[in-house]
Amino acid sequence: IWWKEKAPLREIIKLLRDTYCGHIGADYMHLLDLEERRWLRQRMESSANKANLDKDDKKQILHKLNQAMAFEEFLHKKYIGHKRFSLEGADTL
Question: Looking at the chain, which terminus has fewer C-beta neighbours within 10 angstroms, N or C?
């Protein structure tokens, strides 16, 4: 929205919903540097907060997630009963 002088309210609401009400969020209002905050907001709103990943990038992400899950399973078997972090809560991402 920041790149348009005028836009219909319907378009503004759609863009904001697509950007801020999806599966991925970002907490940036705590940033003290207004330029950093503005840069992040512009980057999110210009792409509706959707990653533009090609097929190779997606494969690499899947491979890394599989490695992390295998490592988590190993830790679970090796250190039964010990507290550890899990991918399920996205603590390690």
Answer: C
